[in-house]
Amino acid sequence: MSFILSVGVIPTSHAKDTEPLRLGKCDPDGAVKTLDAGLKKGKSLNAAMKMVINNKQFDGSNACITFIRESSMEQRESAPYAFKKLWME
User: Fold this and answer.
1) By three-state DSSP, how is residue 7 classified?
2) Using alpha carbons only, how large is the chain's radius of gyration in Å?
3) How far apart are CA 48 and CA 85, in angstroms?
4) Closest by alpha carbon to 22, among 51, 45, 46, 56?
5) Cα–Cα distance between 37 and 43 in angstroms, integer?
6) Are 43 and 84 within 8 A, CB to CB?
7) Do the beta carbons of residue 27 and residue 60 sit within 8 Å?
8) DSSP string of 17-79?
9) Could you read off the pLDDT of 13-60 as tens digits, one per residue?
10) What average pLDDT does this structure show over 3-7?
11) Is the Cβ–Cβ distance between 64 and 18 less than 8 Å?
């Protein structure tokens, strides 16, 4: 869970013409599906979380992190990779 809090999945750049990161709304169910798909393909948790951010399924809040984890618990049978990463490791 600390991986999300550190926002280490977002590469930083000091270029003047870069556009600031725009996060979307919190979509826990969609985020779990995206995380599971990325993890199933062998991506790291950070790379899968970057997919969630790029899909605008994360709003950057601690509450959204909690909702994503809770949703992964509810979807543990249909999204086993996300459940394992968010709860078992």
Assistant:
1) coil
2) 13
3) 11
4) 56
5) 9
6) no
7) no
8) TPPPP------HHHHHHHHHHHHHTT--HHHHHHHHHHTT---S-HHHHHHHHHHHHHTTTT-
9) 555 556 666 788 999 999 999 999 999 999 999 999 999 999 999 999
10) 47
11) no
